[in-house]
Amino acid sequence: MGKLDKIRIKGFRSIKDQTVVLGPINILIGGNGSGKSNFIEAFKLLREISEGRLADYVKRAGGAERILHFGMKETESLQLKACFNDSVDQYEISLEPTDVGGLLPMHEITSYWNKAYPQPYNRSLSTFGGEAAISKGNVQGVSAYVKDALSSWRVYHFHDTGPSSPMKRIADVDDNRFLRPDGSNLAAFLYFLKEAHEAEYALIKNTVRRVAPFFDDFVLHPRSLDETRIRLEWKHINSDEFFDVSSFSDGTLRFIALAVLLLQPVRFRPSVILVDEPELGLHPAAITLLGALVRQASAKGQVILSTQSPFLLDHFTPEEVVVADREGGSSVFARLDSASLTEWLEDFSLGELWEKNELGGRPRGT
Question: Which has the higher per-residue pLDDT, 87 or 59?
Fold first, then answer.
C-alpha cells in the first residue's frame, strides 16, 4: 500500500479547514479539546465511507448537526481529501446535510496525476443509495486503489481493561483476519500468529517479557468443550500454573495489545495505524519500549498517535510531532521543526519543552 502524503479536513467537528502533511511517524499533542481526537476521527469517517457505512456513522454520531463544524447553520458541507504517493493518487468527497439530519455525498472525485501533465486526470463518481461510490464492490483503477487504502485504516482504542473489556472476552477461533480496533479478538489473533507466523509470535512474546519479567508465554488453545472458541491465558515463569487474561494488570494487557498491533506481520497491518493515547496506564519502561515499537513499525507503514505524555514525546524528533491548538474556536495543526528549537533542545527534551509550554498544545484560556 502506498504512502498517505496529506489529508485535508474541512467542516468536520472542531476543524474548520486544515491540511496536514503526514510522514511515517505522526505524534499528535495538544490540550483537552484541541482537536486531536477529531483529527483521528476523520480517518475513521473516511474508512466508514469506503465501506458503505456513512449513514450508520452519521446516526451513531448524533446526526449532521453534531458532525459539521459549529452545526448546519455555520457549515454547509463537510469535505475530505486524501493524497497518496506524492499526490499521484487522490480522493476527494463532499458531504451535505439533509433535512432529516443525515449527510449525503454530493461530489466525489478520484484523481491520477503522474506529474508529466500540468493537471491531474479527474474522474467524478456517481453516488448510490445515499452512500459513496467508492464503497461499491466493482470500482476499478485509482478508485480501487483508494478504496483498499481507506478500508485498511483502523483507529485502535485499548483503554477498556475492566471486567467486561472486549480483550477479556471469549473469541471465535476463526476471527483472525486482522486485529480488531478494540482488541476483542486478541486471543484468536495471537493463536493464529503462533500457528502460522512463528517469528512474529516469538518477537511479540519476548517483547512482552521485557515489560512483564514474570511472564513466560501465552497459553493458546481452543476451549475443550467448544473448539470454535478461545480465551487468552498465560503461564507464569518457573511455574506450571495457568492464569487467565484477568490476571494481567491493566497496563500489561494494554501493552500486549499494542505489541501485537505494532509487531504483527506487515501483510496484516493497516496501511495507517492510528492509536489514541496508547500510553494510558503504562510504566515508564513500557513507554520507552512503545516508542521503539512505533519507530520499528513506521519503517514499513505509517503511524499516527495522539498522546498526553511528555515522556512518550521524548522518544521522537520535532519533525515527527504535530501540535494541535485552538484558534478562534477552531482546531489548527502545525508540525514542529528542529531549526526553530535548536537552542531549546540543547538544554531540554521535547517533553520538557511541552511542559514548559514552549511548543504550544497546552490548555489555555480563551
Answer: 59
Q: Is the CB of residue 319 less than 8 Å from the CB of residue 348?
A: no
**Within a 10 A sphere around the Cβ of 296, how many other Cβ atoms?**
13
- Tell me the three cell numbers of residue 259: 505489541
231-266, pLDDT tens digit by residue?
Answer: 999 999 988 888 999 999 999 999 999 999 999 999
The strand order across the sheet containing 15-21 reads 15-21, 4-12, 78-84, 89-97, 103-112, 121-124
- pLDDT, mean of residues 153-157: 93
Q: What is the pLDDT of residue 163?
A: 92
Paired sense of beta strands 233-236 and 215-219, if any: antiparallel
pLDDT (0 to 100) of residue 366: 43
Show the cell assigned to 53.
457505512
Per residue, what are the HEC states of 45-69?
HHHHHHCCCHHHHHHHHCCHHHHEC
Residue 288, CA atoms < 13 Å, CB-side half-sphere: 5
For residues 9 and 21, is the Cβ–Cβ distance under 8 A? no
- How far, in Å, CA of 268 to CA of 24, rounded? 17
